[in-house]
C-alpha cells in the first residue's frame, strides 16, 4: 500500500474503526515506513493533548454583546403586559354588553359565549404548559 | 503519585499547560465547522463513528473523511508543538 492511501487510513486506525483486513494492511505498511509511523505518532500525541483540554470560558464581551439591550427587555415586557391586560378587559366588557343586550336571542348568546369560553380555556391550557416548560427548561441558564 | 501531584501544582507547569491549551483551541477554531464538530464529538465526547454519524445525520464514510481532514490540518497547524 502507498503512503497516500495509508495516510487516509491512519485516523480511523487510531480510532479503532477500521475493518480487520485494513488494519493488517496499515500495520504492514507502518513496519516499513518511518514517515507514516511518525504521522501516527503525531496523531496519538494530538489525541493525548486534546484529552486534557478544558472547554474554554466563553468570551464575556461577546456574551454581553449577544444579550438584548435593557431597553428592549423593558419595553417588550411592558408592551405584552398592557396588550394582555386591555385585551382581557375588552373581552370581558364585550361579553357583558352582549349578555345584557335584550335584542339578542338567548340561544345565540349561549352559542357565542360557549365559543369564547372554549377559546379562553384553550388559551389557559397552552399558557399553563408553557409556564411549566419554562420552569423545567434545563437550558435556561445557557447563555450562548 | 506524590510526584505527579506536586508537578501539576507547579505554577510554571500550569502556565505552560494553559498556553498549550490556548494554542490547541486556536488550531481547532481554524478548522471548518464540519471538521470541528466531528473532532470535538470524537475527542471530547468520545463518540464512536457510528454515534457521530447518527448525531450529525451523515454517512460513516463522511465522518471518517472529516476526522481524517481535521487531524491532517491540526497536525499542520500544531507542527512545532507536536514535535
Describe the structure.
The complex is a heterodimer of chains A (144) and B (83). Chain A has 144 residues and is an all-alpha fold. Helices cover 77% and strands 0% of the residues of chain A. In chain A, helix 1 crosses helix 2 (20-32). The model of chain A has no long low-confidence stretch (mean pLDDT 87). Chain B is mainly alpha-helical. The mean pLDDT of chain B is 86. Classes of the chains: A mainly alpha (144), B mainly alpha (83). Chains A and B meet through helix 1 and helix 3 of A and helix 2, helix 3 and helix 5 of B.
N-to-C SSE string of chain B, H for helix and E for strand: HHHHHH
Beta-strand content bin of chain A: under 5%
User: Beta-strand percentage of chain B?
Assistant: under 5%
Q: Please compute the radius of gyration of chain B using only Cα atoms.
A: 16 Å
**Secondary structure category of chain B:** mainly alpha
Please describe the biggest sheet of chain A, giving its number of strands, its sense, and whether it closes into a barrel: none
Shape of chain A: elongated
SSE layout and pairings?
The complex is a heterodimer of chains A (144) and B (83).
Chain A lengths: L2 H12 L5 H13 L1 H18 L8 H7 L3 H31 L5 H30 L9
Helix pairs in contact in A: 1-2, 1-3
Chain B lengths: L1 H8 L1 H19 L3 H11 L5 H8 L3 H18 L1 H4 L1
Helix pairs in contact in B: 3-5, 4-5
Brief overview:
Helix content of chain A is 77%, strand content 0%. Chain A is built from 6 helices and no strands.
Tags for this entry?
heterodimer, B: 83 residues, mainly alpha, 6 helices, elongated
Amino acid at each position: 500500500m502507498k503512503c497516500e492511501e495509508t495516510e487516509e487510513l491512519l485516523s480511523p486506525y487510531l480510532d479503532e474503526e477500521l475493518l480487520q483486513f485494513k488494519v493488517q494492511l496499515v500495520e504492514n505498511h507502518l513496519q516499513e515506513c518511518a514517515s507514516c509511523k511518525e504521522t501516527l505518532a503525531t496523531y496519538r500525541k494530538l489525541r493525548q493533548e486534546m484529552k486534557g483540554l478544558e472547554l474554554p470560558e466563553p468570551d464575556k464581551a461577546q456574551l454581553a454583546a449577544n444579550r438584548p439591550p435593557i431597553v428592549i427587555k423593558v419595553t417588550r415586557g411592558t408592551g405584552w403586559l398592557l396588550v394582555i391586560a386591555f385585551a382581557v378587559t375588552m373581552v370581558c366588557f364585550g361579553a357583558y354588553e352582549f349578555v345584557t343586550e335584550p335584542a339578542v336571542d338567548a340561544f345565540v348568546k349561549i352559542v357565542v359565549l360557549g365559543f369564547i369560553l372554549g377559546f379562553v380555556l384553550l388559551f389557559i391550557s397552552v399558557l399553563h404548559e408553557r409556564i411549566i416548560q419554562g420552569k423545567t427548561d434545563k437550558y435556561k441558564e445557557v447563555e450562548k | 503519585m506524590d510526584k505527579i501531584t506536586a508537578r501539576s501544582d507547579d505554577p510554571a507547569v500550569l502556565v505552560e499547560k494553559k498556553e498549550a491549551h490556548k494554542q490547541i483551541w486556536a488550531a481547532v477554531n481554524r478548522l471548518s465547522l464540519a471538521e470541528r464538530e466531528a473532532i470535538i464529538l470524537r475527542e471530547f465526547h468520545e463518540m464512536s463513528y457510528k454515534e457521530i454519524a447518527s448525531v450529525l445525520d451523515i454517512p460513516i464514510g463522511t465522518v471518517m473523511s472529516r476526522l481524517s481532514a481535521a487531524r491532517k490540518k491540526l497536525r499542520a497547524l500544531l507542527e512545532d508543538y507536536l514535535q
